[in-house]
Design brief:
Layout lengths: L2 H17 L31 E6 L25 E4 L1 E12 L2 E11 L8 E9 L9 E9 L2 E8 L3 H4 L8 E5 L2 E10 L3 E11 L1 E3 L2 E6 L17 E9 L7 E5 L4 E6 L2 E9 L8 E6 L6 E7 L10 E8 L1 H5 L5 E8 L7 H15 L6 E7 L3 E3 L5 E2 L2 H14 L8 H11 L7 E8 L6 H15 L6 E7 L5 H10 L4 E4 L5 H13 L1 E9 L5 E6 L6 E2 L4 E8 L5 E7 L5 E10 L5 H20 L2 H14 L7 E14 L15 E13 L10 H5 L12 H13 L1 H4 L4 H5 L7 H27 L2
Parallel strand pairs: 3-13, 18-32, 20-21, 20-24, 24-25, 25-26
Antiparallel strand pairs: 1-2, 1-5, 3-4, 4-10, 5-9, 6-7, 6-10, 7-33, 8-9, 11-12, 12-17, 13-16, 14-17, 15-16, 18-19, 19-30, 21-22, 21-23, 27-29, 27-31, 28-30, 31-32, 33-34
Helix pairs in contact: 4-5, 4-9, 6-7, 7-8, 8-10, 10-11, 13-16
Length: 758
């Protein structure tokens, strides 16, 4: 979603917190009163844990459903709606860690405590799929239960025309790259809601340690009112590293009890009745006490429902602490898009990100910078050593030359970058390509890059690391480009994430320890398919995982070979074993879908697109060719005779009652993929996340409405009553703005008296 929607969500929660002051819980002193606007800053409204909100358009329905109280009448509607955080009754988390991935399930119960029993409203779930976008969270499914209705998400293939008009941001989608939202319609006041959310996220790997970090920190104001409510939280953690070796526990944020310990497998459990909910994320760190590189090959037969009945394998290689210390000298070229669409926050964040990356270079590394739009501009036409003086000069050059303007000539920039880094012998040549736009000749660029890298004939061809900003660039072109260049791809949907995401990409690239990796021993397999087809380099901050499908007999061991920067060779033998309790299909599904999609785009292969869609629907991992829909199932009681036939109207005998379920699709969510770029937006130099502004008069009115009461009492819900006026026509807006100017104080007084009781 765009930053404007993120801001709208935060304002909605702020308004909801103010509006929740209307809910009266009686004289029970154990009840914690709703927080005021002064007691929590706007940063506290950010979603850092699983939350459910009441979506309030009509502030008049806000009341305690159990003990109705006298409430002054409130005029108007909240538009955008206020979001009142619901009280949470229970929460549990289950995580299964395999290889470099965790499959996480959160189950919780919330109560609509702030809407009178005679009214109803939508309820919106917001859940972070990991602590940040760096963990690459991917939603797998949501289930919800409310009274006699149940809801579930499902991936289906729907054409653009069938779903284009029904997908609204408030129905569901990504608020941020790692925060998923979903709305459940018309829940009665006082009802309990249960949610079960499943997603996958990457484990953090650093210095030989694996770390699982799951959002499990809850604000105080979701604690149920009163002492009578039982509050239970629980955590189940299962670890299977796929190796027959010991696992060492480093740290644990919660008091886990060990349930099982087998070589390479661990199980832990935590459960407690609590007074207040957990206020820290669940963080668990473990390691394999092996100093040298280690890994293995897992084999698994496909399930009966799998669309591909070939055998599966997954080869994984971890660098270990010894190999992780053998870092290579680098020759780094930053190729940065400075076209007109990069203006504003995007170019400023990119400046900061590149300067931060430069500061991470070692003095023995060399570098240069290329800015491009219609033309190319060099900091230096030759690579220079990363001395303190050179880095200071480069920073000044960036500040003077990173000025957004002009078009986007990607092909020219990449051609010159490859030429500049050709002929390297003793260092790792790296190109960091940063852009926010799409161009028409992207497939041709990929073909040219394949030829150029092949023709160089060097053991150390330039590595290409790509970084996409916003939704207007073609992320699958960038992914394919990185695959061709044995590099990595990363993205930032919003300028706020550029620095952290680009720093993570550069750090990963800078930790390269082994290159030109090849796997020996697979030549005798039939129908062999390996992905990625070009094996990337091994770095100390991310394990290498390649997988594939085959027919025939797999060898007992395979040999993995590679070279260091000094061209010396490295070889390791990996043992092959059957994976009995690791769900390889789900663990590897996201990787397969992303790589298949890049190939389908490059080859323009419709059959490959259909294959991606089938894998997506089978595993629950979102793709570009499927849409997530919300299904509603209603339990209805149907009268029948003792024989089971439907009851006739004139029949006298008392019938039995049977429960029937009727399921129907009620919502199509927004597209959850990253997309294939927007040539028109790029051509017009549209900044990422751009949205048309409100008319000047309407904007003035919204500002006046939003500030009039806050200055008086600092806690009023006045915006709830007036923001709808932003949609009126210009003449009406001018008239009402003049009226607001003359009656502002009187309006503030009345609103404060009604809404805040002050």
């Amino acid at each position: 979603m765009t930053s404007s929607l993120v801001d709208e969500f935060a304002r909605g929660v702020e308004d909801g917190v103010r509006l929740s002051k209307r809910v009266y819980f009686g004289k029970d002193r154990s009840v914690k009163q709703p927080p005021t606007a002064q007691s929590i800053m706007s940063s506290s409204y950010e979603v850092v844990s699983p939350m459910v909100y009441a979506v309030i358009y009509n502030p008049g329905i806000v009341d305690n459903p159990d003990v109705p109280s006298y409430q002054p009448h409130v005029h108007g509607r909240c538009d955008p709606p206020a979001l009142i955080p619901l009280q949470m009754n229970s929460i549990s988390m289950e995580a299964h860690c395999s290889l470099d991935t965790a499959l996480v399930t959160i189950t919780g119960s919330w109560r609509l405590h702030c809407v009178m029993s005679s009214a109803s409203c939508d309820c919106r779930l917001a859940i972070p799929l990991g602590p940040s976008p760096l963990t690459q969270g991917s939603i797998l499914g949501v289930q919800a239960q409310v009274t006699n209705k149940s809801y579930t998400t499902q991936l289906v293939v729907i054409g653009d025309k069938a779903a284009g008009d029904t997908a609204k941001p408030q129905d569901g989608g990504f608020l941020k790259p790692h925060i998923f939202t979903l709305s459940i319609p018309q829940v009665d006041g006082g009802s309990n809601l249960s949610f079960k959310v499943t997603w996958s996220q990457k484990l953090i790997y650093k210095d030989g340690d694996f770390t699982l970090d799951v959002p499990f920190s809850f604000p105080e104001y979701v604690t149920p009112a009163g002492k009578k409510f039982s509050k239970k939280e629980s955590i189940q953690l299962n670890i299977n590293i796929g190796l027959g070796t010991e696992v060492v526990i480093r740290t644990a944020s919660h008091p886990l009890k060990e349930q099982k310990r087998i070589v390479g497998k661990l199980a832990f459990f935590y459960e407690a009745e609590v007074l207040t909910w957990s206020n820290t994320n669940f963080v668990f760190t473990y390691s394999v006490p092996v100093s040298s590189a280690f890994g293995g090959v897992l084999l698994q037969s496909p399930s009966s429902l799998s669309i591909d009945q070939r055998e599966m394998f997954s080869l994984y290689l971890f660098p270990g602490t010894d190999l992780g210390k053998k870092l290579m000298r680098k020759e780094v070229l930053f190729v940065v898009d400075i076209s007109g669409s990069m203006k504003g926050r995007t170019i400023e964040a990119t400046k900061k990100a590149v300067v931060t990356a430069l500061s991470k270079l070692d003095q023995l590394d060399s570098f240069s910078i290329m800015a491009f739009n219609d033309q190319t501009y060099y900091y230096s036409s030759n690579l220079v050593l990363a001395t303190k003086e050179a880095l200071e000069e480069a920073t000044n050059w960036i500040n003077m030359n990173f000025i957004a303007g002009g078009g986007t000539n990607t092909s020219l920039a990449l051609d010159q970058a490859i030429e500049m880094l050709s002929g390297t012998k003793q260092s790792v040549p790296m190109i960091f390509f940063i852009t926010d736009g799409a161009v028409e000749n992207e497939r041709q660029i990929c073909e040219i890059m394949i030829r150029q890298l092949k023709d160089q004939g060097s053991d150390l061809c330039p590595r290409i690391y790509t970084f996409g900003i916003g939704s207007f660039c073609n992320h699958y072109f960038l992914r394919m480009l990185a695959m061709i260049g044995r590099g990595c791809y990363e993205s930032a949907s919003d300028p706020d994430f550029i620095v952290a995401q680009l720093e993570a990409l550069f750090s990963r690239a800078a930790s390269t320890v082994l290159m030109n990796i090849a796997v020996d021993g697979l030549d005798d397999l039939d129908a062999l398919e390996v992905y990625p087809s070009v094996v990337p380099d091994l770095c100390s901050e991310r394990p290498l995982i390649i997988s594939g499908q085959y027919k025939g007999g797999f060898p007992d061991t395979v040999k993995v070979c590679g070279i260091f920067a000094d061209t010396s060779n490295y070889t390791i033998d990996l043992k092959v074993q059957r994976a009995t309790d690791i769900p390889l299909e789900k663990v590897l599904a996201k990787q397969h879908i992303e790589q298949y999609t890049a190939q389908a785009w490059y080859l323009q292969d419709k059959k490959l697109e259909e294959k991606v869609a089938k894998i997506s629907m089978q595993t629950g991992v979102v793709s570009e060719y499927t849409r997530m829909v919300l299904l509603e199932t209603v339990k209805e009681k149907q009268a029948t005779t003792s024989s089971g036939s439907k009851l006739a109207i004139k029949e006298i005998n008392l019938p039995k009652k049977e429960t029937t379920e009727k399921a129907r699709m009620i919502k199509v969510l927004q597209r959850l993929g990253v997309g294939f770029g927007d040539l028109i937006a790029t051509r017009e130099n549209t900044p990422p996340g751009y949205e048309p502004k409100l008319p000047d008069q309407a904007e003035m009115l919204v500002r006046a409405a939003g500030n009039c009461c806050v200055d008086v009492c600092g806690m009023c819900c006045c915006p709830c009553c007036i923001q709808a006026c932003s949609r009126m026509n210009d003449q009406c807006a001018i008239l009402v703005t003049q009226l607001c100017g003359s009656l502002a104080f009187l309006g503030c007084f009345v609103c404060c008296e009604a809404c805040c009781g002050e």
